[in-house]
Prior knowledge:
Layout: H1 13-26, H2 34-57, H3 61-72, E1 93-100, E2 105-110, E3 115-119, H4 124-139, H5 144-158, E4 171-175, E5 202-204, E6 222-227, H6 245-255, H7 268-276, E7 278-288, E8 298-300, E9 311-313, H8 314-317, E10 327-334, H9 347-355, E11 360-364, H10 370-387, H11 390-402, H12 411-414, E12 417-421
Parallel strand pairs: 1-4, 4-5, 6-7, 7-10, 10-11
Antiparallel strand pairs: 1-2, 2-3, 7-8, 8-9, 11-12
Amino acid sequence: MRLEPEDGLPVDGALQDLTTAIDAAAGQVPRALESLRWAYADTLWPLFRQAAMLHLARGDIAAALQTAEKGTMRLPMQALSSDAAWPRLPNGVVAVRFLVSDTRSFAIVLGASDTRAVELGAGLADFERDALRFRLLTASRSDRSTTDAVLADMGRRWVAPWIDLVREGATLALIPDGPLHHVSFAALRLGDGRYLAQRNPIEVWGDLTARSREPTPSSAHAMVAVGIERFDHTGFPSLRRLPRALDEAVSIGLQHRETALVGDQTTPTAIVPRLARARVAHFATHALANPEVPNLSWIALAPDEAHPRGLWFASEIRQQALHQTELVYLSVCDRSAGQLSRAEGAASLARAFLDAGVASVIASGWTVDDHVAGKLSRAFHAGYLATGDATASMNAAQQSLITDAEAAASPLSWSSMQVFTRNRLARPTS
């Protein structure tokens, strides 16, 4: 159902005042309390969403987008001028920003020259139920017909209402909301029986207004490949050994003509200076994504004096200067913390690297078979070495596995890896 303006629905002036107050208050929060910034923004998000919905009800898509951006931007939440020119997308890229409230939901589709808002006809409870069904599928061994039926049902609700506005083959940039963070759209089935990945390359953005990564003059050519087999199990006795992690790191390193790091070379302290000079990094290890407090998400590395358990936290990653690093590939066995929430879940580690300056991050939302994960990572790196395009390379790798006998047994095996990247918007110059 397309958006139909409704006259006479005022936008609550108190909410407008609230956004101004948030902008002022957020700028006063010390950087040391960055973990509180996430919780602060998350708590206030329903108010921003409500205001955005009121703007949509009036048919004012630009105001709705600006209000939503204020609610999801990394702090400080600088004010967005109502008369400012909205950023334009480059040709070949279409962004879809989702807004999900208790009773209504919208997909705002932004192309290079047009913006549309489409009502999805479902509320928060519907999407939470779908996300839970998806999550259960990733943790079970459901047969292919059951899995495809669920993915087709989700495709009808999540994708079908707006997909005709997106040209086939265009890069699809998704900005999820609520439970939509917990699903890989690549695996959703379309009305013609294809998966969305077979129609469009897909990447995930955090927002529309954060400044795109400025090109950094770089002489970085090195590649860092890290494989961690053993861990300090204190506090995490359920973490299994990863006997293939080192083999994977060695294999990926060879593709890039580099030697994988081992032993004392894989501590956080040892990796940081190497990563700062690297163009590409690949981690094969365990990780924990904490959707409620993203700064407490971590990657398991080798222990050192500063990190006696070998845990490299997102709060530390975010503080690094990684502007020369074009790609980080997180081939990690994820152990999620917390329940489904509006927070970004598995994306929290990816966001930490993006905030540190990395251009694109590949990360998994759930654990998959080692053999399939290895095939996907090797196919991806082969494509990336040839093109330098993370989104196109992941799409090509996924499509190659759709017809692979082992991976094709479940679309959830090849769709676990997602591309998280800074947005590609270019603000018009006056």
